[in-house]
Structure formats: structure tokens, C-alpha cells
Amino acid sequence: MERLKSAVPADIRRAVGEGTARDLPSTTSLLLDFFDGVPLFHQVISELTDPELALCRKDKGRAVELKGRGNACFSKREFEQALGFYSQALRYVPISSDGNYEILVPTLYVNRASTMHKLGLLKQCLRDCNRAISVSSNYAKAWYRRGMVNASLKKYSSAIHDLKVALSMEVTSSGKSNIEQELKLILLKHRNVNEVGRSSSDCQDAGLPHTEPHKVVLECASTPNKGRGMMSLNVISPASLIHVEDPLAAIIIKSCRETHCHYCFSEAPADVVFCPLCTIPVYCSKECQEQAVGDISWNQDTSLEFNSHHLVDNAKLGLTSTRCKTSNSKQIAEHMHECGGAHWAAVLPADIVLAGRVMAQYIDKRLLTGKSSAISGPNLDLVHHYDIDSPTSKLESHIYAIVLLLCLQKYYRSDLSWREESLSQLVLLICQIKVNSIAIVHMKSVDGGQELTESKGYSTASDAVMCSVEQIRVAQAIYMSGSLFNHSCRPNVHTYFHSRTLFLRSTEYIESGSPLELSYGPQAGEMDLLERQKSLQENYKFSCRCSSCSELNLSDLVIDSFCCPRSFCLGAVSESTCYRSEENFVHVSLNGSAVCKLSLPDVSKVDEDMEKVGKLFFRNDDADLKIDPGYCMSCRSQLDLSSVVATLDRAASKINSY
Prior knowledge:
This is SET domain-containing protein. Pfam families: SET. InterPro entries: SET_dom, SET_dom_sf, TPR-like_helical_dom_sf, TPR_rpt. The chain is α+β, with helices and mostly antiparallel strands. Among the domains are: about 1-35 and about 305-320 and about 330-435, no CATH class; about 60-195, Alpha Horseshoe (Serine Threonine Protein Phosphatase 5, Tetratricopeptide repeat), CATH 1.25.40.10; about 555-655, no CATH class. The chain has 21 helices and 19 strands. Strands 1-2-14-11 form a 4-stranded mixed β-sheet, with no helix packed on it. A hairpin with a 3-residue loop joins strand 1 and strand 2. The radius of gyration is 30 Å and the shape is globular. It starts with a helix and ends with a helix.
């Protein structure tokens, strides 16, 4: 997009940068008219939407090549590499009704199942066998492999059934002889060993139990300092579940595209499932695939044709297509408009693709209700802060809105048309998503987790295998009610996610009428005051006025400080300066510019031991607290700041060079 930005003349840049939301109809039309006469712009749109130029289309030749490389690795017993090649081959297999496809797909599933069987991934292996049978029910190798993995799972009745079916379908004498030998062994084991029942945890998409929400009455109210926000009309106990919500739209972030399911955002298993129409998304199960793409039959002609044509007046932009809904009639298939091989959804930023999903959902709902009149776009009741955006950000929003509109136009093919204010509404939608989208955070095992534990034969209960986990950001989404909760650097509400669903729980006792506030990221104790304010201003366009930002916290003062040079002292050496001390607070100069108030705790109200600790840290015997650069706040030992800062800079430089 940098090429398009640099092509915009200075006068249009100035008009866009100085304009407000009321000026959007004129500024968007001005930029659209300019781009209509720029060959570079038409080239960019063609590169993003033309399937012949696409990087994400299916390729049977590529699938066959990857299958051969997987076979070679399997022969050399390089099973992990073989697993990767078979999965990539499945990613590139196109939907087709020719005979080659009907042989290739079940073969790939069985090959991948055999590889996972070797790696001890039995449940994943069983699912691939089921997929192979669903595509080709008369494929003997699929029944044989499923029988063998059922035997490994000690499900001998199922194993015997599968091997008998495989025996009836096998046409070669050597194949029949092999199956008969395995069948005899399993029949013998069946007589001597008890059956293993199906565990309730076998289901890949089994949901986690959640307590019913506490009967909390929430109300959206406005305050002078923070504007709209949520508050409770009754008392809330700690750990109460106060809100549950599914997103209006969600998108996986680029760094997790290959490692997490694009619908439920859980970690992708070894037996990933791919989109049947393009190579972009991966899914953890058939269920997630159908939720995102829709229920597409294997013999359906799903080719999408794109006709290239020049831009026209934005009041006449036509959009058409036949949409697929998921098995749940209330759910719109969120990925369908991004399919067909065009790679714009893989190239554009995540928040722009998310805006496209919101727009596509709005269009689909209108089409499903029979409304074919001209539309302007969704009018979400969310803040956008367009007027205070930077000129550069305004220009980017304009360009992305035009590009996104034309990418959607390439997909939709009905007599549906846009109103003149469509682009204006799309610019505001992009701004709303930037300000209001919520990061979906999941827990990630950093040492293998349950899957590794099971593959090694451990029992998490009896063997007490240790597992380290960390929080990672996997996606971003728009939650219409969740977006109304204001931020606090000391929140009283905790957010967490199961799949795409947002859950909010209280972290403390909350009085009736008190605001319910969560953290948008920065929290006291994790960032200092100035960093928190800067982060919130840049990302959410507001200056935080919560209780933790109204004055300095001790954590703000010591979070980036140095340790006391005396080994037995636990005090901190700050670069900040305390220039005045009073009874209950001091004023602190940060970075030589900002001056903040720091309240001191009243140690007389705590027990004797805490009083001793407080006096040691906050007071000297004969003087008030002194916060001077280079001096320990506890024992007053001096540290050569210039020396340690230089050492720190050299170490940081070496780290950054790697």
C-alpha cells in the first residue's frame, strides 16, 4: 500500500488529513476519482483479486509433488517431516469431480494417518481414517488403517469390524493375507483383554463447563471523565460470572495462522483440516471448517469467476454472489467471501480483513432477508475517533476502504448496489475496529502439553507431569457489549476466552452503581505511568483517568529501577527525583519533565511486622523519604548511574543485534 500512498497528490493528502467525519463523502469520492485514472491502482487491485495471479489457489500438481516428498520421508522413517508434507498436500488438493481427486484425497488422509500412527497420535490418526472413509467408503486401506488404530486404542470390537470390512474390499491376495493375519491377532487379544470405553474427552470440540452467569443487572451509563461505560445495578461478589458474549466478527492474527485454528483459535492439532476453496486457513476439525466456510459438497462446482473491469462511480458499484450458510441457519459463513484463490485476505492487515467480515455479514443478512436495495454499510454504535486521528492514519483508512470495497465487489454478483456514502461508512468502520477490537488471548503450553503427555504414555494425574503455560494473543474480535466496558489500570473485571466466546468475571467485591472496568492491556505494576498513558493514547485515543493514573504508584517508581548495590539490601535505586515531601505524599519528577504525586502508606494502621517493613522502606530514622537519582530509597547507598546505564545500553545493543 506504500506505493498507493506515495502516488496521492499533496492537495488530496491535505484535504483528507484536515477533514473530519462530516467531510468523508467528499474526501472519499475525491480519492476514488483520482485512483480511477491511475494504472498502478488497477494493477494492485488485480494482483489482490485475480485468481490467475493468486498465491492461495488450489494446485493439484503441487499436491501430488508434496505427496511424493511425504512418501520419501516415510520410507526413510522421517515421520515428522512426512506428516508435514502430507498435510501441505491436503492443503493444495482442489475440489474436483474427476477420478484422480477421488483417489488422491483418501490416499493422503490414509498416508497421514499411518504417519500419525507411527508417532503415537492415535486419536488424530482415527479422525483422518474417518475422513478418508467419508470421501471414499470403498477404500480398503482406510478401513484397514482404522482397524489397526482401533486395536492400538484397545477398541477391539471396532477393530475387528473395520478389518472385516477391509478384507471384503481388498482385491489383492497379498493384501488379503496381511489383513487375515492381523485379524487373527486382534481376535486373540479380544478374548483376553477387556474393552476400553470411549472417553468423554475424545471429542475434539468438547466444550468446557462454565458456571451460569451471576444474576447481574448491567446498565450502560455515561460519566464526565470516561463517557459511556458499564455499571452494575446490584452488588457483585468476587469471581462472579457477569457477562458472556460471542463476537460480531473475529479474525486470527498473522503470527498464528499456521499454528492455530482459524475459527475457534485453539492450537491446531496434527490432523489439521483446510479450507476446500483456498489455501489460507487451517481448522482443528470439520465442525470449525463448516462454521467458517459453510457446508460445501465434494462434487460441487465451486469455481469462482472474476471479471476484471474498471472503476465506476461509487454510487453504482455492484456486488453479487451466492452465499453459503453454515449448518446453523443463524450463522453466516465468515470466510466464504475471502475464498476462490484470491489472496487479498492474506495480504491486507488483520483489522482491515475484520472490517471486511463485518461488512460481508451485513450484506449477507440483507440478502437472506430479501433486501436488495442499495446499502451504505453497517452502522455500529461504537466510537471511532476519526476526527482526532493523524493525517497519515486518515489517508491509510481511505485507501484501505477503497481497496476493501473493490475486493468485496469481486466476490458479490447480484443487483445489490452501494449508496454514495458506502465508502464513508467503511472508513468509519475501519476506525471503529481499530479502537474497539478486543484481543483474544489463549493459554499455550510451552513444553508440549496434553498431546505430548498422552503420546509419551503418561497419566497427568498419576505421573504428575509438569507443564508450563503462557498467555498468547491469537486473534482480535468485535464484541458489541464487551466494547462498552471501560478501561482501568487496576480493573475489577477479568476477561478470558473459551474458543471465540468472551467471559467476564469480577475480581473483587463491587458495590451497586460502581463502574465495571477491565484492562485494555496496560496495568499498574506491568508498565509505569507514562508508558501506560502513551500506549492507551496511541491505541485507543484517550488519556486514562482511572484511580491508578490519577497519581503515581510505588510500582511506577521502582518498575524500571536498579537494585541496591549492597547485597543484603532489598531497596531500589531510581533515576527519578523527589523534590518535595509532605505528610502523606511526595512529588516525583519523572524523566526530568513530568511531575507526579506519590501517596505514602499510613504504616500506623498495619500490624507491627508490616510497620517495621514499611518504615525500613519508606523512612529513615531522622529524615523524610528522599528519592534522589542514584541513591537507594531504603539504605541510601549510592550507585554510579552513568556507569550502570552505559552497561545496560551495551547489553541491550548486543541483544538487539542477534
